[in-house]
Amino acid sequence: MPNLLFDQEPRSRAGGGRLRVVVPGLVLVVLLGVLAGGVIAVRRSVVPAGVDGFTIAAARQAADVDVPRRVVDLEGRLLADDRPWSSTAARGSVLVVNFWASWCAPCRAEQPDLTRVARGYATRGVAFLGVNVSDDRDSARAYVRELGVPYPSLFDPKAETAPRLGLVGLPTTFVLDRDGMVGYQRTGRTTAASLSARLDGLLAQGGRWTR
């Protein structure tokens, strides 16, 4: 009678050898799949399709920055009616410039705060301007209607205004003084408290940044 244990041992060893080879291979495939899925998920969360390289800044912690003082001229065409607009028309007023897009979730989250501050400071010499970037007009107009944005926006689908202020992510808010000089930037979601504090400080010194 053949020794069954002896006869089966080579098969067991051979099977074990194959198992040791196959299992690491399967683990590697699974890990690569998970990694690829994670990269895709992260990319979808910060870089929408068709956007020219802008990331959603709120993926990081929002940060207030005192930027180098320089006069900035912005111009373009309005989202609502395609009329030309230039920031020179706002000289004499403090100007808050907020870059946004309809696909940007943190932009939507911060909009009630922006609206509140815009309405609260309208009689104090503070104007607001939105700049809608890397978007389509219908989606942007629907956003404005839905959220009741009370101030105008430029429609800038190619983000041509972004380099003038050094924009790298959305949402981002800048404050220009009465002379059109930029002196403050908040990258990430703006709050009514943080923006109001900056505006109060600027208005207290006559609406002009200290050189």
Number of spatially distinct domains: 2
Q: Can you tell me the residue ranges where pLDDT is under 50 for at least 5 consecutive residues? A: 1-15, 21-52
Coarse shape: globular
**Strand-pairing-aware structural class:** alpha/beta
Give the SSE string: HEEEEEEHEHEHEEEH
Supply the CATH superfamily name of the largest domain: Glutaredoxin
Query: Could you give a short account of the major beta sheet?
Result: 7 strands, mixed
User: CATH class of the largest domain, anyone?
Assistant: Alpha Beta
Indicate the multimeric state: single chain
**CATH topology-level fold name of the largest domain:** Glutaredoxin
Would you write up a description of this structure?
This protein has 211 residues and is α/β, with parallel strands linked by helices. It has two domains: 46 residues; 150 residues, Glutaredoxin. Strands 2, 3, 6, 7, 8, 10 and 11 form a seven-stranded mixed beta sheet that branches. Strands 1-9 form a two-stranded parallel sheet. A hairpin with a 4-residue loop joins β10 and β11. The longest helix is centred in the N-terminal third of the chain and has 43 residues. The chain is globular and about 40 Å long. The N terminus is likely disordered.
